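This section describes the prediction task in plain terms. A model, or a person checking by hand, is given the sequence of a single protein chain and must write out its three-dimensional structure as a string of tokens. No templates, partner chains or ligands are provided. The sample shown here is typical of the held-out split.
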Amino acid sequence: SRVVPQAVRVHRPVTFRQQRERSAESATNAVIKTPDLRMPGSVFIGRLFLALLLAGVAATSAAQGITNPWLKALSERDLAALSRMLEDGPVNPNLALPDGKTALMIAAQEADGELVVQLIAAGADVSAANANGGSVLMFAAISGDASIVGLLLDAGARADARAMLGWTALSLAAVKGHGEVVRVLLGFGADQRAQDAYGWTALMRAAYNGHFDAVQVLLEAPGADLSARQESGATVLHMAAAGGDPDIVELLVDRGADIAARDGDGNTAADIAAASGHLEIAEWLRSLEALADRG
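The expected answer:
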């Protein structure tokens, strides 16, 4: 099993919130180094992937030449019609649109638990993936319905299936901030140490996007890696500093994140916070760096 290096814990004299109260004015006026910060293109690419994953068939079914009743209802996202056809039967629940999207994906995305149960009972493939590799479980993870996620996993969906660019259901739940979905996925063995094509972990995604609950769930579970690095050499603390949520930054430091770690351009998390305009976080992190230097 992988051994996660233990970062040096820094004992700070005050919490971030205490320091903010004491020195808000100095934080505003401080002269702070602002490196040439280039946030990785993977942030933009990640958002593009989410759009591609969720994209359905454009325009109307008529414009696409769809005449099959099931596919017509599917293209129009008419969940009630799909349910009626399942009741009337027989129907193939795995018929998919040209982009590979199935009824089970749409039901999961819309968090329609009754239709999900109905489709699974009719033989819908819980492991199906669309043209971008997006699985049924990923659509459920994005929707944030933990009960549907659990239902799909119980039915045999793979927790660690990967889509385009290495995204998983766990990384999608993390980037959306669905802490309970993250918990369910981890309970079914999802590997939070997995990194996507740009080196991002689920913990990095949650920290950068400011999702405290998801970060907390990930840190409490086995496999949380505070020293993992993405494509630019940044750690999760760098990403949290860029995101600007002080509670997440403080939580990561509490759990032993290395404040002295430098990314590929030589920046510490304090440098990243400053360059991102989060001056109070930068000052607090630099106070910890100074304390560590003295110790």
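For orientation: Residues 1-13, 23-39, 56-63 have pLDDT under 50 and may be disordered.
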